[in-house]
């Protein structure tokens, strides 16, 4: 057992061999517009620990610290154009994480984007992404699905299914899935586990409903956990009892 409660040598024991980590763009900005190097550095350090234990790691990052297509639409911008702007924002976050992983931790990293950006990233090709993961590289997926009107939550679900990930690690600013918003409802119940269908039927605001439906239909597990607790990425990948596990029986 390591100092922060992560089982040592956990791959093949309690944990997962291939995971997809979904990070919100707002976290990368530290609550403001742009990239907060301290936050990115913290995420990179935790990812380095996971990779060192032999877990294959793919990452999807949102772009909310730069743009949100739906919000830009409310201010009069054409929605599709706003979504494409947000896709560019996700790619800036991807490049920032790649820089920290390679420069500070020596981890070979590939950024793959759903829209062509040949000078800064590879095009997204599922089999190539899987090959990178097999070689121990971290793969960071940018530009969402490459299509407007789809969130990066949906991109995370779709990428996880295509690369054969065992779980989507959904990093949030709260401890897991609650019966109500814990920030406004002090007595809200934290679930240890819940089904995809229950999340959708209760209207719990965990992630995009399209993403949850896609995961439900394909039996993809989602672990919702608190990114703001140091070491939680490694704990989540280890199969430790944290957060809320969302699954569909059968």
Q: What do the pLDDT scores average to?
A: 89
What would the principal axes of the Cα set say about the shape?
globular
The span between the termini is 32 Å
Largest sheet: 9 strands, mixed
Annotation field: number of helices? 9
Structural class: alpha/beta
Order the strands across the largest sheet as they lie in space. 4-3-5-2-1-6-8-9-7
What is the number of E strands?
9
Unreliable runs: 1-13
- Write down the secondary-structure element order: EHHEHHEEHEHEEHHEHE
Strand content: 15-25%
C-alpha-based Rg, rounded:
17 Å
Q: What portion of residues is helical?
A: 25-40%
Question: Could you give a short description of this structure?
Answer:
The protein is of the alpha/beta class and 250 residues long.
Care to describe what's here?
The chain has 250 residues and is of the alpha/beta class. It is 39% helix and 17% strand. The chain has helices spanning 25-28, 37-52, 69-74, 79-105, 126-134, 152-163, 196-202, 209-217, 232-238, and strands at residues 18-23, 56-61, 109-113, 122-123, 138-142, 167-172, 193-195, 221-226, 244-247. Strands 4-3-5-2-1-6-8-9-7 form a nine-stranded mixed β-sheet, with helices on both faces. Helix 2 (37-52) packs parallel to helix 9, helix 6 (152-163) packs parallel to helix 8 and helix 7 (196-202) packs antiparallel against helix 8. It is globular.
